Amino acid sequence: MNVERCIELHNEIVQHGWIGSGRSPETLTSQSKSWFQLHGGKAEAARSDLSAELIQFLEQAQDPLSGPGYMFEFEDLLWPCDYEARTGEKQKDIRRRRLVLYQAGHFGTGHTCGLIYDQKTTLCILALTLYDMDGMDERRWYPLETVLSFWLSQIRQGSVQATPEKGGKLREEWSALGENRDPSNWVFVPYNEVMMKRNLEIWDKLVEAIESRVPMESITAQPIYGLLENNVRKTISLPQRFAYNFLFRARRPRFKKKK
What we know:
Distance between the termini: 63 Å
Strand order of the largest sheet: 3-4-5-6-7
Largest sheet: 5 strands, antiparallel
Structural class: alpha+beta
Helix content: 25-40%
Radius of gyration: 24 Å
Number of helices: 8
Strand content: 5-15%
Order of helices and strands: HEHHEEHEEEEHEHEHH
Number of strands: 9
Shape: elongated
């Protein structure tokens, strides 16, 4: 476990949530505590069950006293009173080594779980509910750094965003988000310009691969953008979102039409 890197990633996610929900970045440090400071005696009592790496992580990872939940589907870091039992493991040695490091929010099942961390292997697996734990040992587990890096990448590209209580500008752009808002103030954004550009770049590589296999005499000089003709815009029955914009912005392969 790369402890320093995991602490850095965790704290950056906390900062995104804090600022995105409308709070001042200057107040984050004063309004945060470590896991041990926040939970006091109960956390100290659990210290003997925790690995040295996990103790270091929990001593330096920021845990705001108030504000949005940690990250979209996750409410917070583990609670010392039930961090062990919530894994549902029956073997005592496994129960001591595995814990729910990040608690999942509520999904209406009443049996939430979260991101399970194995102290022996230092690997993680996602189980949002207890029902997701079936066959857990047969599935792939990932380093905590990998999981946190992926979560942060979703924030950086705008797929997941923290918002003020009433949704801010996102509520104006995506009115449906108001009906499905997560109580933690995080929202999953259907798409934005960053996602669009990324998909167009991938599409361009595919088009280039196709063109590289076509004889040069069959390639037109100028690229044409838009998989559909412009005169179709007014007749096509698509909302002006991802699919619509992709169809009219993606580059066509440069094939010459046969006469």
